[in-house]
Write a structure and sequence with these properties.
By secondary structure, the protein is of the alpha+beta class. The chain is 20% helix and 28% strand. The chain has helices at 43-47, 88-91, 113-122, 168-171, 193-202, 214-221, 226-232; strands at 10-11, 14-15, 54-59, 69-74, 77-83, 99-103, 106-107, 128-133, 139-144, 153-156, 159-163, 178-183, 186-187, 206-213. The strands form three sheets. Strands 3, 4, 5, 6, 7 and 8 form a six-stranded antiparallel sheet that branches. Strands 9, 10, 11, 12, 13 and 14 form a six-stranded antiparallel sheet that branches. 38% of the residues are buried.
Amino acid sequence: MYPTLGTTAHYAGYTSQELVRRPLLPVAATHQQWVAPLTNSSVGMAKAHISHGIRQVTLCKDGKGKAGLRLLAYDNGIFVSFVMANSPASLAGVRFGDQILQMNQANCAGWSTDKAMNALRDANGAAILLAVRDRPFERTITMLKDSANRAGFGLKNGRIEKIVEDSSAARNGILTDHHLLEVNGQNVIGLSDKEIGRILENSVRDVTIAIMPSKTFQDLTKGMATSLVRESMDHRCN
Protein backbone atom coordinates (compact mmCIF):
# COMPACT_ATOMS: atom_id res chain seq x y z
CA MET A 1 0.00 0.00 0.00
CA TYR A 2 1.16 3.52 -0.73
CA PRO A 3 1.28 5.98 2.18
CA THR A 4 -1.58 8.43 2.65
CA LEU A 5 -0.72 12.07 2.05
CA GLY A 6 -2.65 15.21 2.96
CA THR A 7 -5.72 15.90 0.85
CA THR A 8 -4.62 19.40 -0.13
CA ALA A 9 -1.06 18.65 -1.18
CA HIS A 10 0.11 18.80 -4.79
CA TYR A 11 2.81 16.63 -6.32
CA ALA A 12 4.25 17.35 -9.78
CA GLY A 13 0.92 18.68 -11.00
CA TYR A 14 -1.30 16.11 -9.27
CA THR A 15 -3.54 16.51 -6.25
CA SER A 16 -3.19 13.80 -3.64
CA GLN A 17 -6.66 12.49 -4.56
CA GLU A 18 -5.38 11.66 -8.07
CA LEU A 19 -2.43 9.64 -6.81
CA VAL A 20 -2.39 5.92 -6.23
CA ARG A 21 -3.41 4.61 -2.79
CA ARG A 22 -3.48 0.92 -3.63
CA PRO A 23 -1.06 -1.54 -5.26
CA LEU A 24 -0.78 -1.17 -9.02
CA LEU A 25 -2.08 -3.91 -11.29
CA PRO A 26 -0.51 -4.95 -14.61
CA VAL A 27 -1.96 -3.34 -17.73
CA ALA A 28 -2.34 -5.15 -21.04
CA ALA A 29 0.10 -3.81 -23.63
CA THR A 30 -1.98 -2.37 -26.45
CA HIS A 31 -0.72 0.09 -29.04
CA GLN A 32 -2.36 2.99 -27.23
CA GLN A 33 -0.68 2.05 -23.98
CA TRP A 34 2.91 2.21 -25.18
CA VAL A 35 4.32 5.09 -23.20
CA ALA A 36 8.05 5.18 -23.88
CA PRO A 37 10.19 5.23 -27.05
CA LEU A 38 11.31 1.78 -28.11
CA THR A 39 14.54 3.11 -29.65
CA ASN A 40 17.37 5.35 -28.55
CA SER A 41 16.12 8.26 -30.68
CA SER A 42 15.03 10.30 -27.64
CA VAL A 43 17.16 13.41 -27.02
CA GLY A 44 16.49 13.17 -23.29
CA MET A 45 17.51 9.51 -23.28
CA ALA A 46 20.82 10.35 -24.91
CA LYS A 47 21.56 13.13 -22.41
CA ALA A 48 20.57 11.01 -19.42
CA HIS A 49 22.36 7.83 -20.47
CA ILE A 50 23.95 5.84 -17.63
CA SER A 51 26.36 3.18 -18.83
CA HIS A 52 27.68 1.82 -15.50
CA GLY A 53 30.91 1.46 -17.47
CA ILE A 54 34.40 2.68 -16.57
CA ARG A 55 35.92 5.83 -18.03
CA GLN A 56 39.16 7.74 -17.51
CA VAL A 57 38.92 11.32 -16.23
CA THR A 58 41.79 13.77 -15.93
CA LEU A 59 41.19 16.54 -13.39
CA CYS A 60 43.11 19.68 -12.60
CA LYS A 61 42.69 22.09 -9.71
CA ASP A 62 41.56 25.69 -9.87
CA GLY A 63 43.51 28.74 -8.74
CA LYS A 64 42.56 28.00 -5.13
CA GLY A 65 43.87 24.45 -5.33
CA LYS A 66 40.36 22.93 -5.43
CA ALA A 67 39.04 20.23 -7.77
CA GLY A 68 35.42 20.92 -6.85
CA LEU A 69 34.15 17.60 -5.56
CA ARG A 70 33.58 15.73 -2.32
CA LEU A 71 34.25 12.03 -1.90
CA LEU A 72 32.62 9.61 0.52
CA ALA A 73 33.43 6.07 1.61
CA TYR A 74 30.39 3.82 1.16
CA ASP A 75 30.10 0.02 1.02
CA ASN A 76 33.89 -0.30 0.82
CA GLY A 77 34.07 2.00 -2.21
CA ILE A 78 34.67 5.71 -2.81
CA PHE A 79 31.82 7.73 -4.30
CA VAL A 80 31.24 11.30 -5.47
CA SER A 81 28.77 12.93 -3.07
CA PHE A 82 29.01 16.50 -4.36
CA VAL A 83 30.18 18.32 -7.50
CA MET A 84 30.61 22.09 -7.36
CA ALA A 85 29.09 24.08 -10.22
CA ASN A 86 31.62 25.41 -12.78
CA SER A 87 34.47 23.56 -11.05
CA PRO A 88 37.20 21.47 -12.72
CA ALA A 89 35.29 18.33 -11.69
CA SER A 90 32.08 19.63 -13.25
CA LEU A 91 33.82 20.62 -16.47
CA ALA A 92 35.45 17.17 -16.65
CA GLY A 93 32.05 15.48 -16.45
CA VAL A 94 32.27 14.02 -12.95
CA ARG A 95 28.75 13.45 -11.59
CA PHE A 96 27.05 12.78 -8.30
CA GLY A 97 27.04 9.04 -7.60
CA ASP A 98 30.12 8.22 -9.69
CA GLN A 99 32.40 5.61 -8.11
CA ILE A 100 36.12 6.42 -8.01
CA LEU A 101 37.96 3.15 -8.63
CA GLN A 102 41.49 4.55 -8.91
CA MET A 103 43.22 7.85 -8.24
CA ASN A 104 46.58 8.29 -9.95
CA GLN A 105 46.67 4.48 -10.44
CA ALA A 106 46.13 3.76 -6.73
CA ASN A 107 43.16 1.49 -6.06
CA CYS A 108 40.54 3.21 -3.87
CA ALA A 109 38.71 0.11 -2.60
CA GLY A 110 38.67 0.06 1.18
CA TRP A 111 39.74 3.69 1.57
CA SER A 112 38.11 5.85 4.22
CA THR A 113 36.54 9.19 3.41
CA ASP A 114 39.49 10.97 5.02
CA LYS A 115 42.02 8.97 3.04
CA ALA A 116 40.23 9.72 -0.24
CA MET A 117 39.92 13.45 0.47
CA ASN A 118 43.54 13.66 1.66
CA ALA A 119 44.74 11.91 -1.50
CA LEU A 120 42.75 14.37 -3.59
CA ARG A 121 44.12 17.32 -1.61
CA ASP A 122 47.73 16.13 -1.90
CA ALA A 123 47.57 15.23 -5.60
CA ASN A 124 49.41 17.30 -8.18
CA GLY A 125 46.94 19.99 -9.27
CA ALA A 126 48.08 19.90 -12.89
CA ALA A 127 46.71 16.42 -13.56
CA ILE A 128 44.77 14.00 -11.36
CA LEU A 129 44.03 10.76 -13.19
CA LEU A 130 40.83 9.01 -12.13
CA ALA A 131 39.24 5.71 -13.13
CA VAL A 132 35.50 6.27 -12.72
CA ARG A 133 32.56 3.88 -12.85
CA ASP A 134 29.44 5.62 -14.10
CA ARG A 135 26.89 5.95 -11.26
CA PRO A 136 26.45 2.28 -10.26
CA PHE A 137 23.51 2.92 -7.90
CA GLU A 138 21.43 4.83 -10.45
CA ARG A 139 19.17 3.84 -13.34
CA THR A 140 17.24 5.75 -15.97
CA ILE A 141 13.61 5.40 -17.03
CA THR A 142 12.04 7.01 -20.11
CA MET A 143 8.34 7.88 -20.22
CA LEU A 144 5.90 9.72 -22.45
CA LYS A 145 3.91 12.42 -20.68
CA ASP A 146 0.12 12.25 -21.05
CA SER A 147 -2.17 14.72 -22.81
CA ALA A 148 -2.18 16.87 -19.67
CA ASN A 149 1.66 17.05 -19.83
CA ARG A 150 2.11 14.85 -16.74
CA ALA A 151 4.32 11.80 -16.29
CA GLY A 152 2.36 10.19 -13.47
CA PHE A 153 4.33 10.35 -10.25
CA GLY A 154 4.41 12.57 -7.18
CA LEU A 155 7.39 13.95 -5.27
CA LYS A 156 7.96 15.04 -1.72
CA ASN A 157 11.37 16.58 -1.01
CA GLY A 158 12.75 15.00 -4.18
CA ARG A 159 11.57 11.52 -3.19
CA ILE A 160 9.05 9.61 -5.31
CA GLU A 161 6.14 8.92 -2.96
CA LYS A 162 3.15 8.35 -5.24
CA ILE A 163 2.48 6.79 -8.62
CA VAL A 164 -0.67 7.44 -10.64
CA GLU A 165 -2.50 4.26 -11.62
CA ASP A 166 -2.30 3.36 -15.33
CA SER A 167 0.09 6.29 -15.92
CA SER A 168 3.26 6.32 -17.97
CA ALA A 169 5.25 6.17 -14.74
CA ALA A 170 3.36 3.07 -13.62
CA ARG A 171 3.75 1.26 -16.93
CA ASN A 172 7.45 2.04 -17.19
CA GLY A 173 8.42 0.75 -13.76
CA ILE A 174 8.90 3.89 -11.66
CA LEU A 175 9.34 2.90 -8.01
CA THR A 176 8.48 4.69 -4.79
CA ASP A 177 11.15 5.22 -2.12
CA HIS A 178 13.54 6.43 -4.82
CA HIS A 179 15.00 9.92 -5.19
CA LEU A 180 14.79 11.79 -8.47
CA LEU A 181 18.30 12.91 -9.45
CA GLU A 182 18.10 14.02 -13.08
CA VAL A 183 15.54 15.05 -15.69
CA ASN A 184 16.78 14.64 -19.27
CA GLY A 185 20.36 14.81 -18.02
CA GLN A 186 19.86 17.87 -15.80
CA ASN A 187 20.83 17.42 -12.16
CA VAL A 188 17.86 18.37 -9.92
CA ILE A 189 19.31 17.35 -6.54
CA GLY A 190 18.48 19.97 -3.92
CA LEU A 191 15.87 21.76 -6.03
CA SER A 192 12.37 22.17 -4.63
CA ASP A 193 9.54 19.90 -5.79
CA LYS A 194 7.95 22.90 -7.54
CA GLU A 195 11.18 23.65 -9.40
CA ILE A 196 11.50 20.01 -10.45
CA GLY A 197 7.84 20.04 -11.50
CA ARG A 198 8.47 23.03 -13.78
CA ILE A 199 11.47 21.30 -15.35
CA LEU A 200 9.31 18.24 -16.03
CA GLU A 201 6.49 20.37 -17.45
CA ASN A 202 8.86 22.26 -19.76
CA SER A 203 10.61 19.14 -21.02
CA VAL A 204 9.84 17.37 -24.27
CA ARG A 205 7.10 14.74 -24.17
CA ASP A 206 9.49 11.78 -23.95
CA VAL A 207 11.21 12.50 -20.66
CA THR A 208 14.04 10.47 -19.14
CA ILE A 209 14.70 10.56 -15.42
CA ALA A 210 17.54 9.16 -13.31
CA ILE A 211 16.62 7.69 -9.92
CA MET A 212 18.42 6.14 -6.95
CA PRO A 213 17.06 4.20 -3.94
CA SER A 214 16.29 6.75 -1.23
CA LYS A 215 18.30 4.88 1.40
CA THR A 216 21.43 5.08 -0.75
CA PHE A 217 20.80 8.74 -1.60
CA GLN A 218 20.40 9.64 2.06
CA ASP A 219 23.59 7.79 2.96
CA LEU A 220 25.59 9.58 0.23
CA THR A 221 24.29 13.03 1.23
CA LYS A 222 24.21 12.57 5.00
CA GLY A 223 25.48 15.59 6.88
CA MET A 224 25.60 17.78 3.78
CA ALA A 225 24.04 21.24 4.20
CA THR A 226 20.85 21.70 2.19
CA SER A 227 21.91 25.22 1.26
CA LEU A 228 25.22 23.95 -0.15
CA VAL A 229 23.49 21.38 -2.35
CA ARG A 230 20.85 23.83 -3.55
CA GLU A 231 23.11 26.80 -4.21
CA SER A 232 26.45 25.31 -5.18
CA MET A 233 25.90 21.85 -6.71
CA ASP A 234 26.29 21.50 -10.46
CA HIS A 235 22.72 21.66 -11.83
CA ARG A 236 23.59 22.15 -15.47
CA CYS A 237 22.20 19.97 -18.23
CA ASN A 238 24.78 17.50 -19.53
